[in-house]
Write a structure and sequence with these properties.
It is a single chain. The chain is an alpha/beta fold. The protein folds into three domains: 103 residues, no CATH class; 103 residues, Rossmann fold (3-Layer(aba) Sandwich); 130 residues. The chain is built from eleven helices and 17 strands. A hairpin with a 2-residue loop joins β1 and β2. α1 packs across α5, α8 packs parallel to α11 and α10 crosses α11. It is elongated, with a radius of gyration of 23 Å. The relative contact order is 0.11.
């Protein structure tokens, strides 16, 4: 679990930020007041929180390090700038930057209060199995599950850890971290199967208001689906590919951000003789990194995939396992996980990036109890 800032300190920081990065020449909004989908603000320490951090002061108490006077809010770019240029951005310089920025907003500002209410109404929680680009999670998540110790790079240290370590930790974390009756924003810097498992444990019967946050070229966006909005036309091209075996298992191939069919066909032919059919779902008009623009689109694709698969599955196939291979945004995978019980028993696969393939089996759901 990440440590928590005091709510009154965070509220005061948000109000006095004026919804704007504190760096003197930056006018980057931290949150669009009429569209709370994008928040780029990061809480920065003037004197570092950890001994190896920039401008660390061993004389500070823990309370002082995480107190209002030692904190300011900047966009991610300028948070990096001040921490990589400590000779230029000394404690004295940052104290002045904080003062000069906040003094502009030391008034009763209803607009600022409105922005703050939007920020505080949802609790940020996170799960990570990757380390790159996730430093913000340590300071901004109210609760954080770090699965990194189970991995060496992107690969699991031992295959048994998927079910003896990763899966039970995800289930316990999501249960413990979402006890309050409030909305949550789930940050996932994690493997595909972890996003699926998170959705699986947070399906509609869980009764939790948890929305994923998606990293995009426009920043981190809250992908909250509009469940009242229907999209026109078919969202994926669905095709069946019959294998030479008569196995009862099915491989589900999700080509959303790029086409992975050929790689999966090769893997299935070599390693999965139990698979008798491959069902390919390819995003329309073409797979690509921007073909899923928002949470509504992602949810509707997941819904379409689940419904199409469910109706196409034969009685024999219902006795088998679904092998899921995906190249897709993690938030889409989360939504698919929320619908995951429609697939019956399923195994998810992760691409072995460190060895340029092949695919490796990861989590199987539902989990075996006992």
């Amino acid at each position: 679990m990440a440590r928590r800032y005091k709510e009154d300190a965070v509220r005061r920081l948000q109000i006095l930020s004026g919804n704007q990065c504190a760096f003197p020449t930056c006018r980057q909004p931290l949150l669009e007041a009429d569209d709370a989908d994008t928040y780029v603000g990061q809480i920065c320490h003037i004197k570092a929180e950890s001994p190896k951090g920039p401008r660390y002061d061993p004389e500070q108490t823990e309370e002082e390090r995480n107190g209002f006077e030692n904190l300011l809010i900047m966009c991610g770019t300028h948070h990096t700038v001040i921490d990589r240029n400590v000779k230029k951005y000394t404690v004295e310089v940052l104290v002045k930057i904080k003062h000069d920025h906040e003094v502009q907003f030391r008034v009763d500002d209803d607009a600022n209060e409105g922005v703050v209410e939007k920020l505080l109404e949802a609790v940020p929680i996170g799960i990570r199995s990757f380390s790159r680009g996730t430093e913000y999670m340590d300071s901004q998540m109210q609760a954080l599950l770090d699965l990194g110790p189970h991995f060496h790079g992107r690969n699991i240290r031992e295959s048994k850890l998927w079910h003896e370590g990763v899966l039970p930790e995800i289930e316990k974390f999501l249960h413990d971290a979402t006890q309050a009756d409030v909305p949550y924003r789930l940050h996932l810097a994690a493997h595909t199967c972890i996003g699926f498992a998170a959705g699986y444990f947070l399906d509609s019967k869980a009764g939790k208001n948890v929305i994923p946050v998606q990293s995009t070229i426009r920043g981190k966006l809250v992908w909250e689906p509009d469940l009242q909005k229907r999209l026109q036309g078919q969202l994926c091209n669905h095709m069946d590919h019959t294998m030479t075996t008569s196995g009862e298992d099915v491989a589900l191939v999700l080509s959303i951000t790029h086409d992975i069919l050929a790689q999966v066909q090769e893997h299935v032919s070599s390693h999965l003789p139990s698979v008798g059919r491959i069902m390919e779902c390819k995003a329309l008009p073409l797979p690509g990194p921007t073909c899923v623009p928002d949470g509504t689109h992602a949810y509707r694709i997941a819904e379409e995939v689940a419904a199409t698969f469910q109706t196409s599955r034969s009685a024999q196939e219902r006795k088998g396992t679904v092998h899921i291979f995906a190249a897709a945004p993690i938030s889409f995978i989360f939504f698919l996980g929320q619908l995951g019980r429609r697939f019956g028993r399923c195994t998810l696969y992760e691409y072995d990036f460190e060895n340029n393939g092949p695919y490796l089996p990861s989590l199987t759901l539902p989990p075996n109890k006992g």
